[in-house]
Design a protein that fits this description.
Elements: E1 17-23, E2 26-32, H1 38-45, E3 64-67, E4 70-73, E5 86-88, H2 97-109, H3 118-131, H4 137-143, H5 155-162, H6 189-194, E6 209-215, E7 221-225, H7 228-234, E8 238-242, E9 269-270, E10 276-282, H8 284-289, E11 297-301, H9 308-312, E12 327-335, H10 338-344, E13 347-355, E14 358-359, E15 367-373, E16 376-381, H11 386-397, E17 404-408, H12 424-434, E18 438-441, H13 444-450, E19 453-454, E20 457-465, E21 471-483, H14 489-499, E22 508-517, H15 531-548, H16 553-560, H17 580-604, E23 609-621, E24 631-637, E25 643-646, H18 656-668, E26 675-678, H19 696-718, E27 726-730, E28 733-738, E29 741-746, E30 759-765, E31 784-796, E32 801-812, H20 819-838, E33 864-869, H21 891-903, E34 909-910, H22 914-926
Bound molecules: FE2/S2 (inorganic) cluster (2 copies).
Length: 931
């Protein structure tokens, strides 16, 4: 049995004690087990939810508090150890000027994105500043080295700590019509730095029962559950057990309805380790104390398919009976004549590349609660896709979607995985049957074993060019291990062939993909939908081509860069906003300087250290591939003169709450501080689609632009004024000024509409795309983002270790709505790309925690220089394009190209862990196969 229980159950609750200590300067008394974790005492008993729990194992640092001034992981401190001690949590930081100034600095520097790590970061940094008011960068990195952040890439956190008095550099209140382009402090930032943001685990309704899921401990197993009445009778406090038999509607869900195949509870056979088979619900203490090994289930382990090759064997068992060859779906984009072009090319290179599973490792594990409200079910949980959740929950409960209300909590990082259901169906079923609130929080282990991963890819390529470096052809074939259920496998298989050319003109092209089922936790969406994997292969191969024709690797890319008028591999001519050439050219001076530095270092280095520099380009279509993905935004003018912005784009840390408001404010011509933001809630915000595919700035931003523009028109219409008139928003009135004459529109006397506003405007935007034909030709995306990264690295050829010295990242964002937030996305993307390149690999069944699964910590991240290119899209709001996924794509190939530059080895399998790098270096020395 997988031990998925929260770790506090280790502490017996039989032993009770009364403990007295001080928290944030106030004396408190706690009566309970002295073995209880301090983190849980603070949160559950004292209500100080600012202290976050990301792992309960001392790995993430989210629970960092000060114990007599020293930072400690509160999850590793027993309550008894706090007796007589002084505790400071994030809620107490502002009592001291050092903490208060640091909190302000985090806001100004944009150091908090999702905010899940922010309390721990602030506490750890405050401890440093209290003992050393002027630390250097190394001291800062050491101080926060034990606190993981998955969003920011740490650079803005470091900057904030080095500059704790920062009060400038951010715009708090730009004038009306001047919000776009400004470094506005994120509108939800204060809650994040104060620790008052409500994440999935932070609210417990009165009388809530607890729920724990029974999961399969084997990769594949038949199972039998028997004796549930006896089980419940033997466990006082456990109210009910739910299995597949208890699902009122359909025991099946999936993010793409046509491919939906995942059961809430497996029936008879579990297809992956961690799959749910039952849920146990009851009083909190009873459920916490319950040992999952007691559950009356018997397992009959079956041989699993773990690898793509095994799954594709002709006699392989089918993971799903209706999917021949274990192929979920195929993708295809073909143009020109690849074979002929490769025959005629002056130079042809080929390569095979492999990438592994990557875990999302957001700091907030999945959590939430559900309750029945009359005939409705209401779910508050972390999610990236409230309306999709609503549809699936309705089908599972067998009710209409209007009876399901999804209220997203703050999301402590998502990166794609929180697009899929996690806690929601279990909570909904239990609350529906029991008519009582039910709450659950995934443990870190449970989060890792049961939620989606980045698809491992196995890729085979050939590319050819002329002797003067003009790309002629690319032949790309890739298989993706999509795991046991479809999740986003079809999207990965469809998106990769469109993008595998890179942002270059490739006249002859063939890209074929397959998503292959295995008995592994489903692979799903992860920042880039397979494109980062493809870029690892394609960008390394293009380096080989450049080297083969003796061209500078950056100039090779500039020579072949797409232009406004050159067709993409799907035959699309974008006609505008193709900023890849500008990105690559912006890197030119940095490239030349870095190459000189590297050459100089290598010419004088006597030891095992070698340096290298690499570059890689990217492009990425914003929004769904050739499918509708509309967003609808509503704006209402209130009687008191304030403006309600209903925008349902879930802010998972990337900043959509702020960006969408900036766009709407300027379209309307109102100051930001006039806005009241109403964020995602299916009962009160229209559908803004999912937060994925780099679509919220572009799609929801455009809808907000349209809604703001329409509201302005309606106000002018009411005032009988022309479109050039100026509108001023004031308390209880609007003043319209035209040709030097001002006219007051008192709002309190105007009737209210169905939404309760004086005037409401609502607008929908769906990006114009077209279906792709059988060869993948057509218009898959209305707008693409472009970018290029350059990495300088140092390799220890004896140890196989790689240190990234600097990343320079140029991105065409169309229009930088908020440069601070965009830089934050770039830096966070670079950090995830670095992790993918050098350290991150999930092995199913092993290392299901943040101790063994390594993500970059502060000390791993080099200086990152962001260069923002603004080649606008006439479709995007104020010209803006997406940036979220774009930022992660080029980092790993740039680092791997730098590795080749430094050592001459071409690693075929990522991540480039020291053992692989060292083995490749040794093999190269022996003249054997490399990588
Ligand atoms: S929750 Fe304490 S270190 Fe992760
Ligand atoms: S802001 Fe650090 S984990 Fe999200």
């Amino acid at each position: 049995m997988i031990e998925l229980a929260r770790m506090e159950t280790v502490a017996t609750r039989e032993e009770q004690a009364t403990l007295a200590f001080s928290v944030n300067g106030r004396p408190v008394t706690y009566r309970g087990s002295p073995l209880q974790r301090l983190s849980h005492v603070l949160r559950d008993d004292l209500g100080l939810i600012g202290t976050k729990v990301g792992c309960d194992a001392g790995d993430c640092g989210a629970c960092t508090v000060l114990l007599n001034g020293e930072p400690v992981c509160a999850c590793l401190v027993a309550a008894g150890q706090a007796q007589g001690q002084q505790i400071t949590t994030v809620e107490g930081l502002s009592q001291d000027s050092t903490g208060a100034r640091l909190q302000q600095s985090f806001l100004v520097h944009g150091a908090a994105q999702c905010g899940a790590c922010t309390p721990g970061m602030l506490v750890a940094a405050t401890a440093l500043l209290l003992r050393n008011p002027s630390p250097n960068e190394t001291e800062v990195m050491d101080a926060i080295g034990g606190v993981l952040c998955r969003c920011t890439g740490y650079r803005k956190i470091i900057a904030a700590i080095l500059d704790p008095g920062a009060a400038s550099g951010a715009d708090q209140a730009p004038e009306a019509g001047a919000a776009v382009g400004r470094r506005l402090v994120r509108l939800d930032g204060k809650r994040k730095i104060e620790g008052t943001e409500i994440f999935g685990a932070d609210e417990t309704p009165a009388g809530a029962l607890a729920l724990r899921v029974v999961r399969c401990p084997h990769h594949r197993a038949r199972f039998r559950i028997a004796g549930l009445p006896e089980f419940c009778a033997q466990h006082p406090g456990i109210h009910a057990v739910f299995t597949a038999k208890d699902i009122p509607g359909r025991n099946c869900y999936g993010v793409i309805p046509r491919f939906a195949d995942q059961p809430v509870f497996a029936e008879n056979e579990a297809r992956f380790r961690g799959e749910a088979v039952a849920a146990v619900v009851g009083d909190v203490d009873a459920v916490s104390a319950w040992d999952p090994a007691d559950f009356p289930v018997s397992w009959d382990e079956l041989p699993p398919l773990m690898e793509i090759d095994a799954a594709l064997l002709p006699d392989a068992n089918r993971v799903h009976a209706n999917r021949p060859d274990n192929v979920l779906v195929r993708g295809r984009v073909v143009c020109g004549d690849v074979e002929k072009a490769l025959r005629e090319a002056d130079v042809v290179v080929s390569g095979e590349y492999e990438t592994g599973f990557v875990e999302h490792a957001y700091i907030e594990p999945e959590a939430g609660f559900a309750r029945r409200v009359g005939d409705q079910i209401e779910i508050q949980a972390c999610t990236q896709s409230p309306y999709m959740d609503r549809s699936d929950i309705a089908a599972i409960l067998g009710i209409v979607p209007e009876l399901v209300r999804i209220i997203p909590t703050a999301v402590g990082g998502g990166f794609g995985s929180k697009l899929d259901l996690s806690v929601q169906p279990f909570l909904a079923i239990a609350a529906w049957h029991l008519n009582q609130p039910v709450r659950m929080v995934y443990s870190r282990v449970e989060s890792i074993v049961s939620t989606t991963k980045r698809h491992p890819a196995r890729m085979k390529l050939r590319a050819g060019c002329t002797r003067d470096g003009k790309l002629l052809a690319l032949d790309f074939a890739a298989d993706f291990n999509t795991g046991a259920y479809s999740s986003w496998g079809p999207t990965v298989a469809a998106r990769v062939p469109v993008h595998a050319s890179g942002p270059y003109r490739v006249p002859h092209y063939r890209a074929l993909t397959r998503a292959v089922h295995t008995h592994i936790v489903p692979a799903g969406a992860f920042r880039g939908f397979g494109v980062p994997q493809a870029a690892i292969a394609q960008e390394q191969l293009y380096d080989d081509l450049a080297n083969a024709v003796g061209m500078d690797r950056l100039e090779f890319r500039i020579l072949n860069a797409l232009d406004d008028d050159t067709p993409t591999v799907t035959g699309q001519v974008l006609g505008e906003g193709v900023g890849i050439r500008a990105c690559l050219e912006a890197l030119r001076p940095h490239w030349k300087a870095a190459r000189q530095r590297v050459a100089q270092f290598n010419s004088t280095a006597a030891g095992p250290l070698r340096r290298g520099v690499g570059v890689a380009g990217m492009w990425y279509g914003c929004g769904n591939t050739s499918l509708p993905n509309p967003s609808t935004v509503r704006v209402g003018l209130k009687q008191d003169g304030r403006i309600a912005l209903h925008q349902g784009a879930v802010d998972i840390g990337q900043g959509s709450n702020t960006i969408v408001t900036q766009i709407c404010a300027d379209a309307l011509g109102a100051p930001i501080e006039r806005f009241d933001l109403i964020s995602g809630d299916t009962a009160v915000t229209p559908d803004c689609g999912k937060t994925s595919a780099s679509r919220q700035t572009f799609v929801t931003g455009k809808a907000a632009h349209m809604a703001g523009t329409q509201l302005r028109s309606k106000i002018l219409e009411l005032a009988h004024a022309c479109s050039c008139a100026k509108i001023e928003f004031a308390d209880g009135k609007v003043i319209v000024e035209e040709k030097g004459k001002a006219r007051n529109l008192p709002l309190s006397t105007l009737p209210l509409d169905e939404y309760g506003y004086v005037i409401t405007s609502e607008a929908t935007f769906d990006p114009p795309t077209s279906p792709l034909d059988e060869n993948g030709q057509g218009v898959p995306y209305a707008v693409y983002g472009f970018g290029a990264h350059m990495a300088e690295i140092e390799v220890d050829t004896e140890l196989g270790t790689i240190r990234v010295l600097k990343v320079t990242a140029a991105h065409d964002v169309g229009r930088a709505i908020n440069p601070t937030l965009i830089e934050g996305q770039i830096e966070g993307g670079v950090a995830q790309g670095l992790g993918m390149a050098l350290m991150e690999e999930f092995f199913p069944g092993k290392g299901e925690n943040l101790h063994d699964y390594l993500i970059p910590s502060a000390g791993d991240i080099p200086p990152i220089e962001s260069i923002l290119i603004e080649d606008p899209s006439s479709i995007g709001p104020f010209g803006a394009k997406g940036i979220g996924e774009q930022a992660v794509i080029p980092t790993a190939p740039a680092i791997l190209n730098a590795l080749h530059d430094a050592t001459g080895i071409r690693l075929r399998k990522t991540p480039a862990t020291p053992d692989r790098v060292r083995a490749a270096i040794l093999a190269a020395c022996d003249g054997g196969p490399r990588g």
